[in-house]
Design a protein that fits this description.
45% of the residues lie in helices and 27% in strands. It is α+β, with helices and mostly antiparallel strands. The protein has one domain. It has a 3-stranded antiparallel beta sheet, covered by helices on one side.
Length: 74
């Protein structure tokens, strides 16, 4: 039983690590689908260099963590 729990834990960590390496277009598409499913109509998603998201909310990372996806209403 301990081996199964360890395997599940390692797989979840690996999945998170690989998700950070996804392309920005893929990450933006995933986030866009989630936002649209909640009924939000007017917003923008933009990929910017890490640390330069001054006037938006960071909602994801991409390109191995070198870029951030920024959400802005309106």
């Amino acid at each position: 039983m301990k081996k199964i729990l360890l395997a599940v834990g390692l797989l979840s960590i690996a999945g998170t690590t690989f998700a950070a390496g996804k392309s920005c277009d893929d990450v933006k598409a995933d986030i866009d689908a989630k936002i649209k499913a909640k009924g939000v109509a007017s917003y923008t998603l933009e990929a910017v260099d890490k640390g330069s998201a001054a006037d938006g909310k960071v909602v994801g990372t991409c390109d191995g963590g070198s870029k951030e996806i920024v959400y802005k209403r309106g």
